[in-house]
Amino acid sequence: MAMVVKKKLIDDTINKPVGTQSTPAKKPAVKKAVEKKVAVEKIEVVDTSLLNKVKDDASYAGVFKEPRNSALTAQYIRTYQFNQRKGNAQTKTRGDVSGSGRKPWKQKGTGKARVGSTRNPVWRGGGVSHGPVARDWSLKMPKKMKSKAFLIALSDKVLKSRAFFLEEFKINEGRTKEVVALIKGWNIVGKLVLVVGKENQNLHKGASNLVNIEVVDSKNLSTYQLLWADKVVFEKSALDKIMEKYAKN
After folding, report:
1. Domain count, the chain
2. Domain containing 217: what range?
3. Which of 10-14, 190-194, 222-226 has the lowest mean pLDDT?
4. CA angle centred on 94, ends 88 and 97, rounded to 5°
5. CA 103: distance to chain centroid?
6. pLDDT tens digits for 138-183?
């Protein structure tokens, strides 16, 4: 009879002897997010015309020949980076926190430490002492200095043979592999800025999935982007607009 009872106890515990610890439930497998990557090696190079160096064109080289000025460039970078700061981090002091400012107990005779307010920084729910305060970090720079910093940055790229131009960026469908094939045909590596003369939605769409590549209109091209990039490729119309602006100075 005892053996029958023992067998029943084993059956009731799902074929496990009485007194054994149950194994913990397995956590459901979490699927890792897979980053979508473009198989650059498998994309064939499209037929494309060779890039022209801005340095080799006399009309452009005559304009973009400004000598380096490290102090001015450093000042521009500092101004630009400071202007990117929002400066809106702010904590509440004991005067800003909601709640009573009543003294919790009398000063003497309780045996407790003296306290003047329930909202002091030491107490839970109190204010923050010496926390960040919202402020305006923006700096100003004269227009002529900004313009000269741009010309210096572009001239540096031209003199080092890192600025190129072609007639236009031919992207038909706005697919990433089109942009990759175009860039592979140029045999250019590193951070790249593509400057267009007019809006090119297909190029913007195709390059949006690629890292270290920026597409910008000629009127929005900044000095910081020129300094950031290893190479810059212009559409001829974009380069003409920039040259026309700085040839007057």
Report:
1. 1
2. 40-66+138-247
3. 10-14
4. 70
5. 49
6. 999 999 999 999 999 999 999 999 999 998 898 888 899 999 999 9
